[in-house]
Write a structure and sequence with these properties.
The chain is built from 19 helices and 14 strands. By secondary structure, the protein is an alpha/beta fold. It folds into two domains: 17-212, Rossmann fold (3-Layer(aba) Sandwich), CATH 3.40.50.720; 240-457, Rossmann fold (3-Layer(aba) Sandwich). Bound molecules: uridine-5'-diphosphate-glucuronic acid (UGA). The site of uridine-5'-diphosphate-glucuronic acid has 22 residues, from α10 and α12.
């Protein structure tokens, strides 16, 4: 029975927290909050994932997470379960951290998991509670979920909803969670913000900026941040296209404009462009959202941002083709990197793997190597060979492509590697190698957005 008169949650001294969805975001959030001293219940519908987390091992590669999990395990504050009942019974504040992938049939975000998690939890809430959304959603979702929460929860309107977007980067997730550069909370009642301020007190004590907004603004902040970051990357990659056409050097250009503090050098790394489970689907979801709001022109530029980004992959392929003399069929091509970025095993929309598939489609014999992402790649890839050791992967290669900038690849010795390959030719698709050293070792080198060192003319992408 619903009791609409129940009081809402007020800041409590040591609230018990639940984190629903234990993927890249939720597993780190749950562990970090337990490390900050809270009792935390991590919930996921995936039993294998829960079992692994309960044993103190992260189900994915994230630097520092295993160590943090093991540190927290000893305290007994962190529990993982598939039971929403346990979470609803014990926790005062529930963080919703489930995924919002791109829908298969459109650009829009798929809200199935968010809706399912909220519905399941809501029906179990019998006392004042704050549910805090962290997933990236189209603006308007939180307002809809807040109404549904109050409607489904036995406690009625005392089940409140706030939105607290997450800005963590894979590869830096632990650090970004324990010491974020800002905390943003969207609420419809200032009292809900106070509950969250109390929860985040250990983080705020480090001087973290605290920004309270309405629900709509908080949802938009996240979409806007990712749209800006994607735009910055595509801007510099558009400059790379100009550099390629004019013989200029995009790395020097980025350094020079980056000195202007209004521009800044970060996220101006030109190369193969962005991938992953966030930026590509978030800009598309944002465009779909603008469309629904009737303001599609406002985000028309994001279509261009997406197109510039995808053109980089075509450009890398064209350069690879030119480097082997115009025909990739039968050529052995080694791809250094499968993850969408270094320090991650995430292969969702990986630019490196995408290029590997394109090479295979042109008949190349493709070998892909990666320090962490091969297990994930093995589950979905069948047209390329996966080789753990980078030197073995380069054996008899006609061409090496550096497509994910792992530290390990910067440490490769160009002299030693030259003895292993059939033809010493390398394309630096991330502008992260010391090309002069490779050229000095006798390699024919090429890069995206930079004049070649070693004499290969830059091909034109048709
Ligand atoms: C991104 C945002 O950076 C986070 O703030 C946000 O929380 C997250 O999405 C999310 O929505 O959950 P992430 O996807 O982990 O984080 O990775 P980024 O570091 O943003 O890199 C994204 C892609 O851009 C990678 O493929 C990377 O190689 C590429 N990139 C990045 C460039 O091509 N050039 C750059 O200068 C920077």
């Amino acid at each position: 029975m619903r009791s609409p008169a129940a009081r809402t949650l007020t800041p409590v001294t040591r609230p018990v927290l639940s984190v629903i969805g234990c993927g890249y975001l939720g597993a780190v959030h749950a562990t970090a909050m337990a490390d900050l001293g809270y009792e935390v219940i991590g919930v996921d519908v995936d039993e294998a994932k829960i079992k692994q987390l309960a044993e103190g091992t992260a189900p994915f590669y994230e630097p520092g997470l295993d160590e943090l999990l093991q540190r927290v395990e000893g305290t007994g504050r962190l529990q993982f379960t598939t039971s929403f009942e346990t979470a609803a019974e014990r926790a005062d504040v529930h963080f919703l951290c489930v995924g919002t992938p791109q829908r298969a049939d459109s650009n829009a975000a798929d809200l199935t998991y968010v809706d399912a998690a909220l519905d399941t939890l809501a029906r179990l809430l019998t006392r004042p509670t704050l549910v805090v959304g962290k997933s990236t959603v189209p603006v308007g979702t939180a307002e809809r979920l807040a109404a549904r929460l109050a409607e489904l929860a036995p406690v009625g309107a005392a089940a409140r909803l706030a939105w607290n977007p997450e800005f963590l980067r894979e590869g830096f997730a632990v650090q970004d969670t324990l010491a974020p550069d800002r905390l943003v909370v969207g609420v419809s009642d200032p009292q809900d913000a106070e509950v969250l301020r109390n929860v985040y007190e250990p983080v705020l004590a480090k001087g973290t900026p605290w920004i309270v907004t309405d629900l709509a603004t908080a949802q938009l902040v996240k979409s806007a941040a990712n749209a800006f970051l994607a735009t910055k990357i595509s801007f510099i990659n558009a400059m790379a296209e100009l550099c390629e056409a004019s013989g200029a050097d995009v790395v020097a250009l980025a350094d020079a404009i980056g000195h202007d503090p209004r521009i800044g050098r970060r996220f101006l790394q030109a190369g193969l462009g962005f991938g992953g489970g966030c930026l590509p689907k978030d800009i598309r979801g944002f465009m779909a959202c603008a469309d629904e709001l009737g303001v599609q022109e406002a985000l028309g530029f994001l279509r261009e941002v997406d197109d510039i980004n995808l053109r980089r992959r075509a450009r890398a392929l064209a350069q690879a083709r030119a480097l082997v003399g115009g025909d990739l069929a039968g050529k052995v091509v080694t791809v250094l990197g499968a993850a969408f970025k270094p320090d991650s095993d995430d292969i969702r929309d990986s630019p490196a793997l995408d290029v590997a598939h394109m090479l295979a489609r042109e008949g190349a014999v493709v070998r892909v190597t990666d320090p962490k992402a091969l297990d994930n790649a093995r589950r979905v890839v069948s047209d390329v060979e996966l080789v753990a050791d980078p030197v073995q992967a380069c054996r008899d290669a006609d061409l090496v492509l550096h497509l994910t900038e792992w530290r390990d690849y910067r440490a490769l010795d160009p002299v030693a590697l030259k003895a292993v390959v059939r033809r010493p030719r390398i394309l630096d698709g991330r502008n992260a190698l010391e090309l002069a050293a490779w050229a000095a070792a006798g390699w024919e080198v090429a890069a995206l957005g930079r004049p070649t060192v070693g004499g290969t003319p830059q091909p034109t992408v048709s």
